[in-house]
């Protein structure tokens, strides 16, 4: 836990009289302010505030802790910086949380480029499908792909994640090819536990269309479903960034080209805009740049028959 930040949050709550006002003043989410206060009370070993529906007031322990926190923050403010140029050099450790598929297929190359540019920075990638607690797990940045972002978090939009419906040639040979979105309801669909497990949503010629899907395999990691689709287990909805190479190789077939799966937002979630480390700001800038590059972040599946497409262009 960052005890200096926790002390700053506690002092701000005491001065503003509410956690909402403190969150606005510190440019933090209210949820983050609540977590820092809880950590501060755990550190102090006592309840620091009386909470009612109308106002907050300090306990006796809270008054004593407030005085100590103010003294500590004064000392922090008096610490001299060795040199201005050195202070502006990005350095230190960044802990970044993201999913396995995003880290493996996309982020690894960007992280490598970032570390080449800023050799005094180290990055610790925390891989997993679940949503992490930034404070408790000491995460500086969580990259989330979702349309259900918690409104209490601070997040920078980075891009849009488009998906494709796909299946292996073997599955299609055995079970036939869906020609319309409603046909998916009769197929074995491989579903992702955290998004659209039983309902896939599309836009077809400007209209919204949803279809209930089911199947005998679901997972909380999209790479598992992608591998299963390649093996002929069923039809999958996959991020284009993960499926594009397999489609180009002919190991998967893109289906229903007229139906556009519901896109998801890509966000960088972090704890506070105030006193953001230079390394974190620069990493967010680079990620936003990469997610805007269609060569790095594709928005549509590749032509599954590139040689045929080139032949058509030559004869046109």
Topology:
Elements: H1 3-16, H2 19-26, H3 30-44, E1 49-51, E2 56-58, H4 60-78, H5 84-87, E3 92-98, H6 100-117, E4 121-127, E5 141-146, E6 154-161, E7 163-167, H7 169-175, E8 189-192, E9 199-204, E10 207-212, E11 218-219, H8 222-230, E12 235-239, H9 240-248, E13 253-255, E14 259-261, E15 264-270, H10 278-291, H11 306-315
Parallel strand pairs: 3-4, 3-5, 8-11, 8-12
Antiparallel strand pairs: 1-2, 5-15, 6-15, 7-12, 7-13, 9-10, 9-14
Family: Belongs to the LysR transcriptional regulatory family.
InterPro entries: LysR-type_TF_proteobact-type, LysR_HTH_N, LysR_subst-bd, WH-like_DNA-bd_sf, WH_DNA-bd_sf
Organism: Variovorax ureilyticus
């Amino acid at each position: 836990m960052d005890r200096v930040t926790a002390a700053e949050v506690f002092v701000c709550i005491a001065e503003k009289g509410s956690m909402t006002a403190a969150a606005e003043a510190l440019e933090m989410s209210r949820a983050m302010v609540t977590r820092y206060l809880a950590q501060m009370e755990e550190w102090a070993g006592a309840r620091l505030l009386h909470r009612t529906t109308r106002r907050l007031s300090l306990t006796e322990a809270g008054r004593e802790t407030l005085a100590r926190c103010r003294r500590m923050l004064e000392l922090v403010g008096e610490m001299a910086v060795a040199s201005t140029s050195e202070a502006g050099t990005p350095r230190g450790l960044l802990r970044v949380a993201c999913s396995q598929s995003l880290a493996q297929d996309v982020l690894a190359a960007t992280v490598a480029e970032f570390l080449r540019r800023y050799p005094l920075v180290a990055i610790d990638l925390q891989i997993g499908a679940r949503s992490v607690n930034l404070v408790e797990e000491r995460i500086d940045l969580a990259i989330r792909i979702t349309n259900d972002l918690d409104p209490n978090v601070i997040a920078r939009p980075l891009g849009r994640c488009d998906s494709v419906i796909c299946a292996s040639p073997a599955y299609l040979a055995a079970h036939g090819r869906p020609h319309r979105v409603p046909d998916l309801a009769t197929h074995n669909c491989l579903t992702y536990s955290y998004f659209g497990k039983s309902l896939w949503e599309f836009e077809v010629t400007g209209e919204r269309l949803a279809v209930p899907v089911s199947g005998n395999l679901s997972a909380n990691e999209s790479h598992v479903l992608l591998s299963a689709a390649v093996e002929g287990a069923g039809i999958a909805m996959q991020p284009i960034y993960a499926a594009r190479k397999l489609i180009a190789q002919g190991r998967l077939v893109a289906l229903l080209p007229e139906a556009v799966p519901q896109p998801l937002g890509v966000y960088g979630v972090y704890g506070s805009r105030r006193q953001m480390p230079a390394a974190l700001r620069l990493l967010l800038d680079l990620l936003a740049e990469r997610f805007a590059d269609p060569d790095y972040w594709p928005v549509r599946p590749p032509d599954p028959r590139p040689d045929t497409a080139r032949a058509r262009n030559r004869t046109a």
